[in-house]
Structure formats: structure tokens, C-alpha cells
Design brief:
Oligomer: single chain
Shape: globular
Order of helices and strands: HHHHHHHHH
Number of helices: 9
Low-confidence stretches: 1-11
Number of domains: 1
Helix content: 55-70%
Radius of gyration: 15 Å
Number of strands: 0
Distance between the termini: 28 Å
Largest sheet: none
Mean pLDDT: 90
Strand content: under 5%
Length: 152
């Protein structure tokens, strides 16, 4: 996390940070509803690179997690902006990563957990479920149970 877009190691990692903050997003959403505007207009494609740097995910892992082909992601990088549907999927991934970092109090531990098979998710890796809303809800629910100390 030695990129100039990365927050201090001691700072709380936010969705805004994971997507590049004001340097990439141009302004930071002030509320969850502000994200609706970002999604509808399309999140800048630079957010893909920032999220990849933070998480260490490969392009293939990122593409799979958001349910977008690698070729489409490459095309969006050239075009400079994601579609509203793609923006929504990228935001969903960033929200899960931020929540995992909060629960585990460590981004690396969160990423390790996301890539590891989980019995409470039917043996699937949490990362492999993020391409759907229902899968992401299951992952968020599991993170909540971990936070509460319930076996997950």
C-alpha cells in the first residue's frame, strides 16, 4: 500500500479510498445516496487501478468478482468511464472489501478471507460470490456474524 493514493496504514479504509478518493472520483460522496449519482454517471475507470493496487487482486480476479469480462474492463479503461451497471458492481466490491477491512481490522487479512473457501458460504470463496447481489448479501451477512463473534 505504498501508493500515493493509499491512506495511512492507521487510517480507516473507506469505499472512497478504495476507489481513488477525490483524485479519481473528482469529489467524494457525502452519503450513501450520493453514490447513486456516481453510479448513474459512471465511475471513472481509474478506480479500477486504485482498487487493484489496494487489494492486490489480479485483473482476472477483479473481472470475475464484478462479473465483467477482462476485455470489457480493458475497453472501459481506454474509454475512461464505467457504465452504470459496471459502476454498481465495482462499488459493491469496494463496499465488501472496506467492510472486511473493518471487521478484520486489516486489509490483508480481509483479502485473504475473501479468497479463502468458507464453510458458511457453502465452501465457496467470498470473492467468487460478489458478482451477484444475493452473493454479496451473503458475504456481508457472514462478515456481520464474524464481527458479532458468531461462527461463520
Amino acid at each position: 500500500m505504498s501508493t500515493d493514493l493509499a491512506p495511512s496504514v492507521h487510517a480507516s479504509l473507506t469505499v472512497d479510498d478504495l476507489l481513488g478518493g477525490p483524485q479519481v472520483l473528482r469529489r467524494v460522496p457525502r452519503s450513501p445516496l450520493d453514490w447513486v449519482t456516481f453510479i448513474r454517471r459512471g465511475i471513472p475507470a481509474g478506480a479500477l487501478d486504485v482498487l487493484t493496487r489496494f487489494t492486490g487482486l489480479t485483473q482476472a480476479e477483479l473481472a470475475s468478482a464484478v462479473g465483467i469480462s477482462e476485455r470489457t474492463l480493458a475497453r472501459r479503461k481506454r474509454e475512461g468511464k464505467l457504465s452504470s451497471e459496471e459502476s454498481s458492481k465495482l462499488l459493491r466490491l469496494a463496499r465488501v472489501v472496506a467492510r472486511g477491512a473493518e471487521v478484520f481490522e486489516d486489509l490483508d487479512a480481509s483479502i485473504h478471507w475473501l479468497k479463502s473457501a468458507n464453510a458458511s458460504l457453502g465452501g465457496a470463496t467470498p470473492l467468487s460470490l460478489l458478482d451477484t447481489d444475493i452473493g454479496a448479501e451473503g458475504v456481508m451477512d457472514t462478515l456481520g456474524r464474524i464481527e458479532q463473534g458468531v461462527f461463520a
